[in-house]
Amino acid sequence: MIDKFVRSTAEALDGVPDGATVLLAGFGDVGMATALLEGLIEQGAKDLVLVCNSGGRDGSAVARLLTLGRVRKLICSFVRAASDAGRLLLAGRLEVEVVPQGTLAERMRAAGAGIPAFYTPTGADTVLAEGREVREIAGRPCLLEYPLAGDVALIDAWQADRWGNLTYRETQRNFNPVMAMAAKLTVAQTRHVVDLGALAPEHVMTPGIFVNRVLHVSG
Amino acid sequence: MIDKFVRSTAEALDGVPDGATVLLAGFGDVGMATALLEGLIEQGAKDLVLVCNSGGRDGSAVARLLTLGRVRKLICSFVRAASDAGRLLLAGRLEVEVVPQGTLAERMRAAGAGIPAFYTPTGADTVLAEGREVREIAGRPCLLEYPLAGDVALIDAWQADRWGNLTYRETQRNFNPVMAMAAKLTVAQTRHVVDLGALAPEHVMTPGIFVNRVLHVSG
Amino acid sequence: MADGFTPLDRDGMAARAAHDIPEGWVVNLGIGIPTEVGNFIPADREVIIHSENGVIGAGPAPAPDRINPFLVNAGTQPITLRTGGSYVHHADSFAIARGGHLDLTVLGAFEVSENGDLANWARAAHEPVKQIGGAMDLAIGAKRLWVIMEHTTKEGAPRLRRTCTYPLTAKGAVKRVYTNLAVLDVTPQGFVVRDIIPGLSFESLAARTDAPLARA
Amino acid sequence: MADGFTPLDRDGMAARAAHDIPEGWVVNLGIGIPTEVGNFIPADREVIIHSENGVIGAGPAPAPDRINPFLVNAGTQPITLRTGGSYVHHADSFAIARGGHLDLTVLGAFEVSENGDLANWARAAHEPVKQIGGAMDLAIGAKRLWVIMEHTTKEGAPRLRRTCTYPLTAKGAVKRVYTNLAVLDVTPQGFVVRDIIPGLSFESLAARTDAPLARA
Questions:
Q1: Residue closest to A154 by CA, chosen among A12, A46, A24, A17
Q2: Residue C1 above 50 pLDDT?
Q3: Residue B9: phi, psi to the nearest 5?
Q4: What is the pLDDT of residue C3?
Q5: CA of D67: how far to CAs of B55, B77, B202, C202, in Å?
Q6: What residues form DSSP beta bridges with D196?
Q7: Which residue does chain A place closest to D89, by CA atoms?
Q8: Closest partner residue to B118 among A117, A168, A203, by Cβ?
Q9: Fold of B5-115+150-216
């Protein structure tokens, strides 16, 4: 019987190695797997590459992981100057790669969908194109972009069953379905556990085949 | 007030010009907008480029459109030799471009998502690569593929509201959500009309922003 | 001639832009003043507001006791969903933006050039702390890009320029600019003034603008 | 030595392959005999069958009076959905196939070469009537590709070859072949025989095979 539930954050994060690329969904705090992120802080892996929409506000779990020095490189769509991430960057203690938000999502989608590379006009006529491959397609300059795959994805779900089928509420969804497809090990936290078959087959938002472990959290 | 409902197939297909590229969803007959296709036959547009998963079985609405000589070119993932499409092809009366099914779906997704080109290993080491651009990425030969956009998409839905929000049943979904995003004019037929707000926001499968016209059909 | 005029405030600029958005358009409103445009679209005019975090049909802010922590806009502010609205994931949300499905995007900016170049993410080309977010994706993808910004900086430097001095978000993307002083179209011939606030002369507006202006 | 043996029939080949699929795998079963593999996976062994038209968790055929016309598999045959199954659209379905999310794909073939080349869509390189479907996508994307086919053609020509004579679906993709006579792994050293049906000798199997065979 397939049963992807684990009983603790320790079990959920077991085996995440130093140097891992970690995909962390969330837009602000909405849709962020905070319990799993706390678990990662506990677990101890370091030299991480963290992929997350932003560098986070001070006091957030993301900022704590960064200030603990556990992240070697942050890949995100923006960093605030007045934030731990901004200060670490300016102090030379954090490498940051800023990627336009749509390209960030699409690069992970490409990783999940087996697209080895794609072109996009986003950023092609900006400083982001410096030193990079640009090709004119249909009269428009386009940047060549490569997939962004994770070793681990941390997912925040609303409901989950033992196959790992997931649903999300409102804007909790954001990066979660895309990141769930893009990692070797996908770990989800869920507010609700439901029986197999309780989710309507048409309404599953992340099929369980993309999910390896599920942790039930409160809240 | 936004109201995308039209009252007749004639109104649904109004203005489809000769030479249009028509995206027709469906896997076999499942998820195929047969009433709209019949309407297109009535409407009279010719020199069409038809994008459809297959050339269809004899007696199908697709086969009728083809045998009426209304299609200049068929873009599909397979054609049966023993079918009207196969016979028309062998008689030199129909141009056929065969595209691997996943590439076919992805090319339309690229059209809908604003991806000017992408690479895929699918078909890169086969005769489909003859005369085409191949690039080695991560040690693997990949074909460069371009978006496939439609002038018109014919969509088969289960439920629809006046904004054009759509749902699908089971495998009715297939190419419908992808084609709905990929055309300039997206026309849907639906079995059920529901009030705005009756579809749960999380369960809308094609947001109405991709849909221009909706026709209520029986069955 | 001395001008006697009152520049529009944030609400005034947002209301002025909202006035020009017709029913049925799908519109992305950027962070800041653009977000406030939504407050000035009459409730009975069905405009579908897209938010980059996956909202189609964003509605106004909820009453304080009705906040749903799972429902926020691109500025992570609590919002509501309009009847008929729906949710998509981030890649689908940007497929909407990049795929040309937005009738209109409204963004803030530092500068706009007379050929429609947009600069809105940094004040120096190689500033290490980059605030790009979704702006580049939105700028390249919309059918129309409007900008709302003050006509000049606090120090009085013009923001409508022959050439942007700040790093670009996208080239040739802006179609119209709403400022606290005027509404200007970006045309192949440069900025064309559509209207000016009462009491401000064309010449005074031109004096506050780096690029040349044409009358509509 | 004369052989006294009975080649496996379609069911026998499907059952033999089904035996090797462990619980928890996500498996795409191609049209024809591969589809029948699903009939031989015990109901209590949770194997998740993917169908290219957007089914995750395909179940067996329904009773004739329980057919749902909206629910078909890749061969457009009526199926059921397992408890826990779900549906996705075509681009997502092929994202699963191409993105490496299938533990196993089982396809039919005309020929397989000793380096794992697969030929299963046409009998001539420039045959105008092409039956590609999803085979090329499935072949490049799966973690493992198995083939089920007769060991030889009706005329007795070997289908396991040094080099394919038919146009390829994908190069170097096949990992194992189930025939009516044997199970063979494709290894860097070529075909390795895992097992042979009772009564057939290794030499007799080799005589029906174009490529050299090694013993496991």
A1: A24
A2: no
A3: -65, -35
A4: 66
A5: 25, 27, 28, 73
A6: D182
A7: A202
A8: A117
A9: Glutaconate Coenzyme A-transferase (3.40.1080)
